[in-house]
Write a structure and sequence with these properties.
It is a single chain. This protein is an alpha+beta fold and about 300 residues long. The chain folds into two domains: about 1-190, Jelly Rolls (Sandwich); about 200-305, Arc Repressor Mutant, subunit A (Orthogonal Bundle). About 40% of the residues lie in helices and about 25% in strands. A seven-stranded antiparallel sheet has the order 1-3-4-11-6-9-12, with helices on both faces. The protein has a five-stranded antiparallel sheet with strand order 2-5-10-7-8. Strand 7 and strand 8 form a beta hairpin. The protein is globular. Residues about 195-200 have low confidence and may be disordered. Keywords: DNA-binding, Transcription, Transcription regulation. This is AraC family transcriptional regulator. It comes from Thioclava kandeliae.
């Protein structure tokens, strides 16, 4: 586990040192500190496969991630933040929440957000690839800004899981499959609380169709015609509901298959690359390998090796 602190930086240079850490471990953003002359913050960082665990404390600060930051460096990651002390105000997806001690916040690194910490705070965070969230729930584009209140038992469980993983990382490497129970719990907690992942109206139809496609993911020959017939919707209408999300039915299915394959390999749920590919509807292993590498920057075997 790596430990970094502003304590040994010269006064006036401390905040710049800290902001470089934020941009490396979290996202590209603007940062504003009320007092830049003396700024104290520290962080413990542990890698966990393609994910990262962090425990940080910081003086008051404000962060703004804007569209220009996303254009410069997109972040296909989600953050799960368990506030331990202090708190702040967070805004994303037209949703404003108060992230106080005991609450758990989920936010999306690929979208703009505003984060304001008016006083000193301490938080434990888990950064995970977007695909590991997409493999567990629908409508993740609406997930950012979801808050699990402190009184909910799931919030306490998630908070304890993340802090226990951090404690473990102080002693030894943490395999990425250890994150699976935490992510499963988050998925279940979001589903049982405010259903932010499935918005009423048009998305009712879209989510029903997506659930069907996920259930039949292993069928390599699943086609637009098959989906349309099974869901009693015309091919044209099927295309329209996916176009509203900026994609097509088959592009979404391919991405979902890849996300599930990545999750199976990174979490140790597949004994081999071939098993993961077949379970997700890929029979052409060469195509699977190319598509996987393009999506995640690593081959399926590299991800599987990291897990083991």
């Amino acid at each position: 586990m790596q430990h970094l602190s502003t304590a040994h930086q010269a006064p006036g240079m401390q905040y710049d040192f800290w902001h470089n850490i934020v941009e490396t471990s979290f996202t590209h953003c603007d940062g504003i500190a009320p007092d830049r002359s003396r700024f104290y913050a520290e962080i413990d960082i542990a890698r966990c496969g393609d994910s990262e665990l962090t425990l940080l404390s910081s003086d008051p600060v404000r962060y703004d991630r804007k569209e220009r930051h996303i254009r410069q460096r997109d972040e296909e990651t989600f953050f799960i933040s368990a506030m331990l002390e202090g708190g702040g105000f967070f805004r994303q997806n037209d949703r404003s929440v108060r992230h106080d001690a005991g609450t758990v916040l989920i936010y999306d690194g690929s979208r703009p957000y505003h984060y304001d910490y008016p006083s000193r705070y301490r938080t434990a965070l888990l950064r995970v690839p977007r695909c590991m969230i997409e493999a567990r729930m629908l409508g993740v584009c609406d997930l950012g800004g979801t808050l699990l209140e402190a009184h909910r038992p799931q919030a306490a469980l998630i908070r304890n899981l993340i802090t226990n993983l951090i404690d473990t990382a102080r002693e030894t490497d943490v395999p990425e499959q250890f994150l699976s129970p935490t992510l499963d719990l988050i998925s279940g907690a979001v589903g049982q609380g405010a259903p932010r992942t499935e918005v009423a109206g048009r998305n009712d139809t879209l989510n029903r169709i997506k659930r069907f496609m996920i259930a039949h993911m292993a069928e390599e020959d699943l086609s637009v015609a098959d989906i349309s017939e099974a869901q009693n919707i015309s091919v044209r209408s099927l295309g329209r509901v996916f176009a509203a999300e900026g994609t097509t039915p088959m592009s979404w299915l391919r991405d979902r298959r890849l996300a599930e394959a990545h999750a199976m390999l990174s979490e140790g749920r597949a004994r081999s690359v071939t098993e993961a590919a077949y379970a997700c509807g890929f029979r052409d292993l060469s195509y699977f390998g190319r598509a996987f590498k393009k999506a995640y920057g690593k081959t399926p075997r590299q991800v599987s090796t990291l897990c083991h």
